[in-house]
């Protein structure tokens, strides 16, 4: 009988879900922490390593670029390797990358370490989502996805605060030294408790699909990131990268639809609630990541706070969002997505409208309350839309669904931050052109704040588009026997 159990890895009740969840969430937390913790250290690194702002920005861009290239391939990897093999490989890459970063003597060394770290995160994120979809029954999936939400939102929220504290008292190397023991603990936990939950089918690998996917997603992430870094939308590098990305993606999509065994099965988009969920997640990630970039800049440049204090002021909102995720998960299981997502988008839209009125004299309490409200609204949208969308897919589409959602989150992040920074810079520039005395230092702060206000208006418009789409949401009920969705 035991042998038979091993040949049926998809039976949820024969798996010890809790140790598997702990291993995945611990590794996921450190992966997400590493993604944002270094942002606060960029100004220090520019001085210590003697590099420019655009060069330093590559520490974030290279990370996003690696995710953008590797995450689409994750659906294929989930069908080629067992859960244990992928988990051990993902955490091992994270450990090696983190150890290299902790010992980095130069920028080039640190950049290489960041790419190795990103390989680990790119393997881990889709594996985490796919494993939870398989081991948790659909009626309890909202609460489990809420736990993932807790990890994914709290880690980036506490990252800048902890990093700021470490930089003030020790050095930037300690951002990575602090992560290492947790990653080692996750690896040991995974080796002891991780079980194989996916079915290894070893489909044919299509090299052209991998090349087109890498050029497509990589080109778009690189192009938008370069524009956001200050390259500007008119620069040759940005135009070529985005053009190559779009053409490659169109060719990739055509190829996938005409293959009997595609690398990513785009037929998942034939399920309407999955498509609506993807649009919701895309808009939500654009709003979150652009806000997470603009707000610290506003607090440091517009209000004059240190990196540590700016991180500390944004900590309550991040923690509230994390704590709300499991609650929203349980409410989703009980009431479905519509009663959470629509009010959530109204809250986000209204909060961003209030944010569009902030000035250099706005109080700290006002900013904290608005940021916390924004994070509550986001928690009402992300997990319900994502879980409802995945629930409509038959089980064989899970690897494709998670790969699509995770890839588009990275692309949305790159596009959202680039657009927000561009809108902020153009708003500041137009203000200075009409200012009576451009040399006055007070005008520079007022111009910067004007740019920030414009960036938040952009976020509000995105939220309103999301609100219009959310009215098409319907609750999906899964028929477990056939794994086919019903309304």
Pairing-aware structural class of the strands and helices? mainly alpha
SS elements, strand count: 2
Radius of gyration: 22 Å
**Count of helical stretches:** 17
Order of strands side by side in the largest beta sheet?
Answer: 1-2
Strand content: under 5%
Mean pLDDT, all residues: 78
- Outline, from the CA principal axes? globular
Q: How can the largest sheet be summarized?
A: 2 strands, antiparallel
Unreliable parts: 1-13, 479-487
Helix content: over 70%
How many angstroms does the end-to-end distance come to? 37 Å
Order of helices and strands: HHHHHHHHHHHHHHHHHEE
Write the layout of secondary structure elements.
Blueprint: H1 2-6, H2 17-48, H3 53-56, H4 58-70, H5 74-80, H6 83-102, H7 107-135, H8 141-169, H9 174-193, H10 207-231, H11 236-257, H12 272-302, H13 307-335, H14 338-355, H15 364-391, H16 398-434, H17 441-470, E1 477-479, E2 484-486
Antiparallel strand pairs: 1-2
Protein architecture, described:
There is one protein chain. This protein is mainly alpha-helical and 487 residues long. Helix content is 78%, strand content 1%. A two-stranded antiparallel sheet has the order 1-2. Helix 4 packs antiparallel against helix 10, helix 10 (207-231) packs antiparallel against helix 11 (236-257) and helix 13 runs parallel beside helix 15 (364-391). The radius of gyration is 22 Å and the shape is globular. Mean pLDDT is 78; it is low at 1-13 and 479-487.
